[in-house]
Q: What sequence folds into this?
């Protein structure tokens, strides 16, 4: 019983910490983008205010699937979170395999897609159609990289892949396989929907696409979902390429560095058209990933 | 007494036909009862693998033996057939009124069941061939019973490919009979092993042709889309769920029991896999890519799912071709799971068609508010198809990936990843355009389907989740099959499977899933209650919206993606076959015009010429 309570406490703690960290990262990103564009930008704690404000507002819903989608999106990422080692925090992460993470993340995407299309707004549908297309673009190189890593280290658990890079920082996959790390970084930008690959959000074109109908607590939940997703994706990158970390602080620091770099790169490029984005992913990242994988398996 | 599994449905077919003439629902009820009986009595046979039966017949001095036997492999397929026929029959009780030839439908359906039982129990080529042909012909009538005229054409394409392949099969079987004096598989296997490898491989290639056609393997997949898309809505689940798998059963027969794998064991290999096996796996890979790309382009929901069946068969083929313990287990798991979720999808679509009468996705929308149970069935099934945990589809794909990574088959893995991620796209299309979005005014009064149609869908939802959380249930029989085929087995327990790079524990996943959803629900529940507004009350950039129809995004849902493959899709294989047919017809026409213009003098001339040639040949020899 004590064990169960301890586990539930741990569970909640990790969830709340991750949400807080993700919102902080979002605030930092807004500041960075503002500075790059020569603006002052909102304070770093602005996302916290946003979430609090959103949950206090009156919201509208478009039926039960709209509600269910929001719950599924948030529930999906919270589930995924527990299969990723966050520094020394790992409740079930020993069980987590990288392939599982990719598919668990899809639960959240499906929930979000379903809820938002359920609103009946065609702009949401356009956004989702673009998001799914782009997903096919960036997942392929990513999965090829995972293929190569699993084959190289003969384990598919994230914990195992992290352990394999222990020792000197020269063992990190960032230095052992720099091309792969580069590809994964580009994929990361695509995954997070940052600038060259943000056609599915495109605020000026399709009214922010998937989130067009969300307001009040729905937008609040999607913001929380986004904050956790950011942490999951960064944590995956840090675990796979930067050798993980043995405590949560240095782990967060590593994630922050990747996040700042991704934000900076993301604010430099204009938007890709959706099929050009997919073609880009299949040309350069996928090509390099395949070459790297061939090098490893031969 | 194995013959009863063939005889009872066949006899019931006639009973169903006669009863159905009196009452339109009687036929389907008989079908349901008979398949329930088959399911029950087959389930009791679990474990008695030594059952066999033979009949001998003396025909013009030829001794012919018909052999039947129960193996773990045929048991699995037979049980699946009985189970799915039961669900479909229950589903179809209410929709019999839609049929023009309801009695003939039930007659043929029971005959298909009987003949599949025959195919599965057969232990010699002749029995197999007889039941195989019976299955082909009865399913041909079933497909052509589809409402549209197109169904006839689709069925015709199906029968041409099937009979062509069946003749190749028969020729090989007779050749083997001449050499060994028996049609039995065991004798054939011995003969093929002892024979020269090249000849054996050619013989086996001819034997496997009908199976490849049934399984819809590239480049013989051209019949699948039209046949599955135009067949009666109640038969599509069976066609896509079960009939494709019978082809896989045949392939397993060729690979393991007719010792194809043993024959090619010592040939040139790539990463430890004989080249021919690898080529076969590549065929599976091409099947995945073709099916996927074409599925995404489809506007007809049944054809879309038919293409998806083609691509999912690719996974099974890759798994059985690489033939590692993990690969085989993965593909058997996928075979069972695909049967379950694909039948669910087709049943859900059949329910939609039953209510709306159309298969074009852009003619529907927003049906979730009218048909929530159908939506739930579709949603669960596509989550399984896309391979998202904690459903059964994830497990099988996960095992197949492990098998591919274990051996380092980069290209096959790449294609498998492609097919899997792209399946999100094509399964989302019907979800978004049929069930979500704006409800069309003409569908505003639609009701959920009757109870008898809901029950099979609800059962299947339950099975998808049950098999997702407890994969050990399916692993029991799969382990028996691997043992029977002389392969190593994979370690498993009721809720976990041991892969090459770590284990999968579905109970953990399920628990954490529940916990994650509870947290999300709590956050949702504690926030302020929201106000329900209509579907037209949305942000529209200031436009005033009046009609739902023009406010529904459905046609060419993935146009940006389709643009990438426009050139490739234009070169359709069907077109190639059609050109081939046209050329054949045209050259035949030319020949006819030259030789058979209808003038008596010409025929006289030919007779004389033939006589001269014969005389000359005779003189020379």
A:
């Amino acid at each position: 019983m004590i064990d169960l309570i301890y586990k539930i406490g741990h569970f909640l703690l990790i969830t709340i910490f991750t949400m807080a960290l993700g919102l902080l990262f979002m605030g930092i990103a807004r500041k960075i983008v503002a500075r790059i564009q020569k603006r002052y930008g909102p304070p770093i704690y602005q996302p916290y205010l946003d979430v609090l404000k959103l949950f206090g507002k009156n919201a509208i819903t478009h039926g039960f699937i709209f509600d269910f989608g929001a719950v599924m999106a948030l529930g999906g990422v919270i589930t995924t979170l527990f299969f990723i080692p966050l520094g020394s925090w790992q409740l079930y992460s020993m069980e987590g395999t990288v392939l599982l993470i990719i598919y668990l993340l899809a639960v959240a995407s499906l929930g979000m897609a379903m809820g938002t299309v359920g609103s009946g707004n065609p702009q949401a549908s356009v956004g989702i159609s673009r998001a799914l297309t782009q997903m096919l673009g960036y997942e392929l190189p990513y999965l090829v990289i995972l293929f190569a890593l699993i084959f190289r280290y003969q384990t598919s658990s994230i914990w195992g892949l992290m352990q394999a890079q222990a020792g000197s920082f020269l063992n990190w996959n960032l230095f052992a396989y720099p091309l792969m790390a580069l590809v994964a970084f580009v994929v990361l930008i695509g995954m997070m929907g940052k600038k060259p690959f943000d056609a599915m959000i495109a605020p000026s074109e399709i009214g922010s696409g998937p989130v067009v109908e969300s307001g009040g607590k729905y937008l609040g939940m999607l913001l929380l979902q986004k904050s956790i997703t950011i942490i999951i994706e960064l944590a995956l990158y840090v675990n796979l390429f930067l050798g993980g970390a043995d405590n949560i602080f240095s782990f967060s620091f590593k994630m922050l560095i990747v996040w700042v770099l991704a934000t900076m790169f993301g604010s430099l490029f204009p938007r890709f058209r959706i099929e050009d984005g997919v073609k880009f992913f299949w040309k350069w990242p996928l090509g390099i990933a395949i070459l790297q994988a061939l090098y490893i398996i031969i | 007494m194995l013959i009863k599994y063939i005889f009872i449905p066949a006899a019931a077919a006639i009973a169903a036909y006669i009863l159905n003439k009196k009452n339109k629902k009687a036929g389907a009820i008989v079908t349901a009862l008979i398949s329930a009986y088959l399911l029950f009595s087959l389930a009791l046979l679990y474990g008695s693998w030594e059952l066999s039966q033979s009949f001998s017949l003396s025909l013009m001095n030829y001794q012919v033996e018909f052999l039947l036997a129960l193996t773990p492999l045929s048991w699995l397929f037979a049980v699946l057939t009985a189970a799915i026929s039961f669900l479909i029959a229950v589903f179809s009780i209410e929709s019999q009124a839609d049929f023009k030839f309801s009695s003939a439908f039930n007659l043929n359906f029971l005959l298909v069941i009987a003949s599949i039982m025959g195919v599965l129990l057969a232990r010699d080529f002749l029995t197999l061939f007889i039941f195989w042909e019976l299955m082909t012909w009865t399913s041909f009538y079933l497909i052509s019973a589809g409402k549209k005229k197109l169904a006839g054409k689709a069925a015709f394409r199906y029968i041409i490919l099937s009979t062509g392949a069946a003749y190749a099969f028969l020729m090989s079987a007779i050749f083997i009979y001449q050499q060994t004096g028996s049609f039995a598989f065991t004798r054939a296997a011995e003969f093929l092993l002892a024979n020269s490898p090249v000849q054996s491989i050619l013989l086996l290639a001819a034997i496997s042709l009908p199976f490849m056609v049934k399984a819809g393997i590239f480049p013989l997949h051209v019949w699948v889309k039209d046949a599955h898309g135009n067949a009666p809505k109640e038969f599509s689940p069976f066609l896509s769920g079960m009939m494709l798998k019978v082809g896989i059963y045949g392939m397993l027969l060729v690979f393991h029991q007719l010792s194809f794998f043993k024959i090619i064991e010592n040939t040139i290999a790539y990463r430890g896999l004989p080249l021919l096996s690898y080529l076969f796996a590549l065929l599976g890979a091409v099947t995945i890519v073709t099916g996927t790309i074409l599925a995404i382009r489809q506007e007809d929901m049944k054809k879309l799912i038919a293409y998806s069946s083609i691509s999912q068969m690719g996974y099974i083929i890759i798994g059985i071709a690489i033939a590692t313990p993990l690969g085989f287990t993965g593909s058997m798991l996928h075979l069972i799971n695909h049967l379950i979720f694909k039948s669910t999808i087709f049943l859900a679509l059949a329910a939609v068609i039953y209510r709306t009468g159309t298969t074009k996705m852009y003619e529907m929308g927003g049906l979730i508010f009218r048909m929530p149970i159908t939506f739930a069935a579709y949603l669960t099934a596509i989550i399984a198809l896309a391979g998202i945990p904690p459903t059964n589809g994830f497990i099988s794909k996960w095992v197949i990936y492990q098998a591919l990574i274990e051996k380092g088959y980069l290209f096959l893995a790449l294609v498998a990843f492609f097919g899997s991620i792209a399946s999100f796209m094509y399964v989302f299309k019907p979800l978004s355009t049929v069930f979500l979005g704006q409800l069309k005014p003409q569908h505003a009064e639609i009701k959920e389907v009757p109870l008898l149609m809901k029950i099979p869908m609800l059962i299947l939802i339950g099975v998808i989740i049950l098999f997702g959380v407890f994969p050990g249930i399916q692993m029991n029989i799969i382990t028996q099959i691997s043992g029977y085929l002389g392969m190593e087995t994979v370690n498993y327990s009721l809720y976990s499977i041991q892969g090459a790079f770590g284990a999968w524990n579905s109970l953990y996943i399920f628990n954490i899933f529940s916990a994650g959803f509870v947290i999300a629900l709590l956050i949702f529940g504690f926030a302020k209650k929201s106000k329900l507004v209509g579907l037209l009350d949305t942000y529209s950039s200031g436009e005033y919206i009046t009609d739902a129809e023009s406010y529904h995004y459905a046609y060419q849902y993935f146009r940006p993606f389709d643009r990438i493959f426009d050139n490739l899709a234009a070169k359709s294989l069907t077109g190639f076959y059609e050109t081939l047919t046209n050329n054949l017809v045209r050259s035949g026409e030319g020949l006819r015009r030259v030789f058979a213009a209808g003038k008596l003098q010409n025929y006289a001339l030919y007779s004389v010429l033939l006589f001269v040639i014969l005389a000359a040949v005779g003189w020379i020899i």
Summary: Chain B touches chain A through 74 residues (CB under 8 Å). The beta strands of chain B are 52-59, 62-69, 269-270, 273-274, 492-493, 496-499, 502-505, 531-532. Chain B is about 70% helix and 5% strand. The CA atoms of residues 299 and 361 of chain B lie 6 Å apart.
